[in-house]
Amino acid sequence: SNTEKVRITSAGNVGIGETDASAAKLSINNVLSGDVGIKITQDQAEIALKIDQNGNNRAIYIDAESTTNNSFEVRSDVLTTGSGALFYSDSSDTGTRSVVEIHNDNGGSSGTNALKVVQDAAGNGIYLDQVGNKYGFYLKHSGNTYAGMKIVADSLTTKQAAHFYSNSSSSDVRNLVDIQNDHTNANGTTLLNIGNDGTGPLADVSGTAGWIHNGMITRVFSFDMALNTAINFDIPMTNTVNVFEITAIHGYYPGVDYYASIVGFYAYRSDTGVVRIENFNDHSSSNSGSWTVSNPNTTTLRITKVAGAASSAARGFVEVKYRDV
Fold it and tell me: N or C: which terminus of the chain has fewer CB atoms within 10 Å of its end residue's CB?
């Protein structure tokens, strides 16, 4: 038929399927069902699409009405050392800006993740290499009933949910981790809350250098169990460890017959094992049970809660301090 397909204006504008080509150098409209708007096949090792934007406006602008599909998608299935996307800037301007910005602008879209990373390989999910002298990660949180940051690591075996590490040789005074509650009226705030449903230690504090923290280790166990329950708390030790300060208690207090405790100094001797060298407290009863300290082998210190007769639920803790090196 004689239907117009392409129009070229006197200004050199081209309209494909577009009768008014005055808005752009190239306008494409009325794409047939099943067709893509623009398709580029590049078999050469050169750029497939190059945009040289010299004016002060967007180089690419996409107005997408997609609902269940992606507005922008990049697939790179044969990458080796390249990247799926690279956003690069060499501007020396000191003005405040973001090299990449993601903005979800509707407060009602509560099911939206502003950024989601799925990493199936044994590589880093997010890798930050901060060279400049400022924060590597800065999070400003305006929520009030949700945490500013949450880490869920349900498949851990031998590693940590979070690891803070420094190998700086600087002798300047600093904190590797700093927690600050900066409002004097926040009286209900707990700076650090640790909950442990297992029988491992609540805290393991150690140091191998310095005058104050020269090899000191503190291990703390916290638990909630019936008085007629027996349990062992095992702590690894080496043959160089020979003095321990041990505090342990389990019970509640309707009377002295419902708690068991020990406080004292203990020593490890290669010939006789663990022995008590000074006793500050030792309380036991038939209802509450008692505490014992032993070493099942030369590399383990064992604090044992001996079961009592009462089935009452009671809380307790074990704290062990020693110098390891």
Answer: N
Tell which residue, 266, 247, 257, has the closest CA to residue 317.
Answer: 247
14-16 vs 26-28, strand pairing mode: parallel
CA 29 to chain centre: 48
> Are the C-beta atoms of residues 42 and 48 closer than 8 Å to each other?
yes
Q: How confident is the model at residue 271 (pLDDT cuts 50, 70, 90)?
A: confident
Which residues lie closer than 8 Å to 281 by C-beta, 6 or more apart?
261, 262, 263, 264
Question: Locate tokens 């990449």: which residue?
Answer: 100
- Looking at the chain, the whole-number percentage of residues with pLDDT higher than 70 is 95
Within 10 A of 232 (CB to CB), how many other CB atoms are there?
13
Amino acid, single-letter form, for residue 17: G
Q: Is 152 left (phi over 0), alpha (psi -120 to 50) or beta?
A: beta
Q: CA 231, CA 314: separation in Å to the nearest integer?
A: 14
The number of angstroms, rounded, from the C-alpha of 298 to the middle of its chain's C-alpha atoms is 36
Q: How far apart are alpha carbons 223 and 231 in whole angstroms?
A: 10
Confidence (pTM): 0.65
Q: How far is it, in rounded angstroms, from Cα 14 to Cα 53?
A: 20
Asked whether the predicted pLDDT for residue 211 surpasses 60, the reply is no
Q: Is the pLDDT of residue 57 over 80?
A: yes
Distance CA 51, CA 198 (A): 59
Vertex 102: Cα angle to 98 and 103 (nearest 5): 110
